Task: structure prediction
Amino acid sequence: MTDIPRGVAPSILSADFARLGEQVELVLDAGARTIHFDVMDGRFVPPITVGPVVASAIAPQVHDAGAILDVHLMVERPERHVEAFASAGADRILVQVESTPNVAYAVKAIRDAGLSPGIVLNPGTPASAVEELIDDVDVVLCMTVNPGWGGQPFLPGSVARIRRLRALVGDRAEIEVDGGVDVETAGPCAEAGATILVAGSAVFGAEDPVRAFHQISAAAGYG
Ligand code: DX5
Ligand code: ZN
Result:
């Protein structure tokens, strides 16, 4: 497993895109070591967000801070986009197991590009889907909302699901959680075995994003 920073990963989906650089700087200065970057194609999920051009705009400042760019592909056939995000400066690429008939190929393409691969499971996907892939990935991301939008409530039953995934994965991969993470839900997620917590609206939607970042980190026990 590659060296992966644990902690709260602010999702720029809820940032102010008119001043994206400033917003990223804010959370990097606060101590964020993972910046979560949500890519949606209008097909795998209804919205369309951003792609490699925007990733390449923020990658240098992320790397200068010693942080990593965590690219979450909510797109059909993600294997087609690995090269483009690798060139844009992605460090980790996470693919949805539901998004391609050939997840193993996508994971291999990410590793072959020199990046860290992760797989993502939607709330309705059986946890056992990790079994065949676990030895090839660094991260398993457990969606705790249905993907597509920031600001949705944390789905009930998610903490038990994280615990189940941790039991399946053991210490072979990090467990990342995405959706509805805030000061209330962060603690139970971390306690169940999550080591990376994505937080979008709870950070960038807060009056003071730096304070919110620290509060969520503290609630998770990440310090
Ligand atoms: C949703 C995205 C998330 C989103 C989370 O499909 O994958 O990363 O930004 O937003 P919050 O933290 O507001 O639930
Ligand atoms: Zn995400």
Observations:
- The mean pLDDT is 97.
- The radius of gyration is 16 Å.
- The chain has one domain: 7-220.
- Residues 56 and 87 are 8 Å apart (CA to CA).
